[in-house]
Automatic annotation (TrEMBL):
Lineage of source species: Bacteria, Pseudomonadati, Pseudomonadota, Alphaproteobacteria, Hyphomicrobiales
Signal peptide range: 1-19
UniProt key word Signal: yes
UniProt superkingdom: Bacteria
Source organism of this protein record: Mesorhizobium alhagi CCNWXJ12-2
UniProt keyword terms in alphabetical order: Signal
Protein name: Uncharacterized protein
Amino acid sequence: MKSLLLALCISLVAAEAQAISRYNSTSMSCAEVQARVRGEGAAILRYRSTRNPSLQLYGRYVSDRRYCNHNEVAETAFVPAADTKSCLVRECIIVDPDDFFIFRRRR
């Protein structure tokens, strides 16, 4: 009975895990990069650093805020693509609620 319960718990944890695709952004056009991120909702994009080409950079990019955590927002970011140096995508950025002075209550 204990082994059945343990197997059930492990299968539930494994069922919630979702794989995320990884792409090399410099081997695709900007339209392809944007289509992949939009189609999958979120993707990891890899590219070489412009300052130090031996350095591999990567990031998680999303189609909109739905793919961010509750304390994050989707901000504009740029990645290099095969046809351009700055392809517009969105990236989840952690936000401090105190930074939004508009939403503060007046005392």
